[in-house]
């Protein structure tokens, strides 16, 4: 396993607003994720959670507001190639996000080629090892993997550039309960070992509180409240919408 080589880096979002045509999907959204922190974004479908993650990566066309890294030393701005290397995204549906006609080997080599990194062999081997898959998986296609294995490959692809922040968009929602727990535990282990910061989106409070220390609740593109996982577990919740989400999340318990 690799120890964290760089100090942890966090991220701040100020007054984010994202518009699709006349529709405002996200507005007045501000939050800060401290270096090494695990931060969750929850809300029902369509509340704007994924749009916030995509905005951080610069993937939405009409976006205003500020996104910046926080931590020691000179840090790259969004739009810089170095920012994209430090901030990596893991998508909800690994079947959709992994190229169906590429072997694992090529899937993992691609980001290295884009960023001009030479020691592909060693990095691929290490990334597979870190997500608990042996070298024997290197030449399989996505359809030759289980759902949990596909998600592990998607995580390995995100890790291969040694980022400092992972943006996780419903990383376990396509998996059944036991595999979901395995992948969440793997993510938590990687976060601790690498000193990563996480921003994780989910509609499921049980999943978010398994992994996150603080969270933001969103409804119709706006922040309902910011609270700690402890507050949530102790039902120190102000807003009725958050209370309704708690009721809807069966099996919601603090880890
Ligand atoms: N490219 C786009 N063009 C137009 N509207 C969009 C686009 N992307 C998202 N939206 C709209 O913005 C709103 C927020 O979408 P978003 O995907 O961020 O929600 P979400 O909370 O992540 O939902 P889910 O949990 O279902 O993924 C939705 O009403 C969606 O239809």
UniProtKB/TrEMBL annotation:
Its main location: membrane. It catalyses: glutathione(out) + ATP + H2O = glutathione(in) + ADP + phosphate + H(+). GO terms for biological process: transmembrane transport. Keywords: ATP-binding, Cell inner membrane, Cell membrane, Membrane, Nucleotide-binding, Translocase, Transport. This is Glutathione import ATP-binding protein GsiA. Its EC number is 7.4.2.10. The complex is composed of two ATP-binding proteins (GsiA), two transmembrane proteins (GsiC and GsiD) and a solute-binding protein (GsiB). The keyword Membrane applies. It is an enzyme of class 7 (translocase). One of its GO terms (molecular function) is ATP hydrolysis activity. It is found in: Cell inner membrane; Membrane. One of its GO terms (cellular component) is plasma membrane. InterPro entries: AAA+_ATPase, ABC_transp_ATP-bind, ABC_transporter-like_ATP-bd, ABC_transporter-like_CS, P-loop_NTPase. Part of the ABC transporter complex GsiABCD involved in glutathione import. Responsible for energy coupling to the transport system. It is a peripheral membrane protein. Residues 11-245 form the ABC transporter domain. The keyword Thylakoid does not apply. It comes from Roseateles toxinivorans. Belongs to the ABC transporter superfamily. Glutathione importer (TC 3.A.1.5.11) family. It comes from the Bacteria.
């Amino acid at each position: 396993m690799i120890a964290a080589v760089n100090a942890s880096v966090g991220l701040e979002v100020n007054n984010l607003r994202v518009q699709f045509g006349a529709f405002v999907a996200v507005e007045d959204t501000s939050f800060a994720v401290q270096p090494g922190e695990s931060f969750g974004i929850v809300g029902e479908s369509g509340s704007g959670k994924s749009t916030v993650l995509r905005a951080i990566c610069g993937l939405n066309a009409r976006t205003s507001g500020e996104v910046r890294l926080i931590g020691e030393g000179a840090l790259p701005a969004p739009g810089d190639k170095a920012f994209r290397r430090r901030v990596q995204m893991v998508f909800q549906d690994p079947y959709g996000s992994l190229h169906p006609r590429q072997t694992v080997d090529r899937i993992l080599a691609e980001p290295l080629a884009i960023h001009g990194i030479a020691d592909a062999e060693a990095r691929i081997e290490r990334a597979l090892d870190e997500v608990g898959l042996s070298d024997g998986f290197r030449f399989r296609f996505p359809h030759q993997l289980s759902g949990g294995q596909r998600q592990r490959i998607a995580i390995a692809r995100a890790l291969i550039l040694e980022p400092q922040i992972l943006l996780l968009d419903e990383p376990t929602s396509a998996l059944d309960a036991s595999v979901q727990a395995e992948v969440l535990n793997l993510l938590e282990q990687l976060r601790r070992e690498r000193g990563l910061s996480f921003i994780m989106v989910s509609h499921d409070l049980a999943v978010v509180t398994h992994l996150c220390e603080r969270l933001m609740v969103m409804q119709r593109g706006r922040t309902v409240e910011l609270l700690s996982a402890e507050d949530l577990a102790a039902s120190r919740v102000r807003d009725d919408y958050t209370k309704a989400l708690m009721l809807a999340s069966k099996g919601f318990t603090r880890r």
